[in-house]
Amino acid sequence: MPRSGLDTRRVVLEAARIADAEGLEEVTLARLAKELGVRAPSLYNHVDGRAGLLRRLSILSLGELTEAMRDAAVGRSGADALQAIAYAYRAWARAHRGRYAVTVSAPDPGDEELAAVAARAIEVLVAVLAAWGFQGEEVLHRVRVIRSALHGFVAIEGAGGFGLPLDLDQSFDLLLATLVAGMERRPS
Fold this sequence. Notes:
Low-confidence stretches: none
Helix content: 55-70%
Distance between the termini: 64 Å
Number of helices: 8
Mean pLDDT: 95
Strand content: under 5%
Largest sheet: none
Order of helices and strands: HHHHHHHH
Number of strands: 0
Shape: globular
Radius of gyration: 19 Å
């Protein structure tokens, strides 16, 4: 019988707290059990091992990231919307460095719940790209370009890889200006 007051949401939120405070590698069932004051085997009433825990952490984190991007885009279109989404993406990644890693992988085949959450994140970008008239495969290629550029920047930034004494915000603004210019230009 599950411990009173302990439910799946509480387990996942504690995992999220640990990941953001100390890194994703610190999210283990033993550590989580210690923080929650239970024995590790009792966590199996709520998650399917560490893999199941990370899956639930992905669902939570992707949902939060999607909400941040969607909220940033509301009332905006085109370049303004793309830039607002990018700033929201970077801010979320900075605030959740530990959990960021679980937001970038494609869902396993057959995982409909995680696939639906991931699709909502992509839909935000597709909606913004509609301002430029992109559709079908072209819009999906451009979504990949945007995701790759943003992920590259926030991953390098998060790892402390930008060691030169240059303003990171200026570099990010240049990245966004380049992305916008790329969206406004169609290949011949």
